[in-house]
Amino acid sequence: MAGVSLHVDPGTGISTLTAVGRVTANEVIAALDEFYAGSPTLLALCDLSQADLLLFSTEQVARIVAFTIARAQARLGGRTAIVSVGDLEYGMARMYEVLAELGKHAVVIRAFRAREDASQWLREER
User: Fold this and answer.
1) Which of 1, 22, 29, 101 suits 54 as a labelling partner, its CA being 20 to 30 A distant?
2) CATH no. for residue 105?
3) Residue 36's beta-bridge partner residues?
4) What is the 8-class DSSP label of residue 73?
5) How far apart are CA 31 and CA 86, in angstroms?
6) pLDDT by residue for the chain (126 residues), tens digit each?
7) What's the whole-model pTM score?
8) How many structural domains compose the chain?
9) Is the separation of the CB atoms in 19 and 48 below 8 Å?
């Protein structure tokens, strides 16, 4: 089953966006729109460990970055960890991280290969 889902853990205050299978930029943007339409948490985990981003282009990654930058004031000072294990997905996550930094994103973005490393970074005191 392919798609993107959103889950908020009230205990940790971490929102998790999980992509499974071959997903599109439009599916990711729809899930992010749902996230920002509610009460977005300061901490977020984007889990791409089961995703296939073969349909993504550089322009689509840039479009997602622009979408989140335009809404980032709702998460000022927040952090987002992106977990990806595949080389293509990790490369896209790193591209997102760099474009977000260049765009002066109000949220700190970091790409990780392991979910535990990402979770640990999110739980660190700021």
Assistant:
1) 101
2) 3.30.750.24
3) none
4) G
5) 21
6) 579 999 999 999 999 999 999 999 999 999 999 999 988 999 999 999 999 999 899 999 999 999 999 999 999 999 999 999 999 999 999 999 999 999 999 999 999 999 999 999 999 876
7) 0.93
8) 1
9) yes
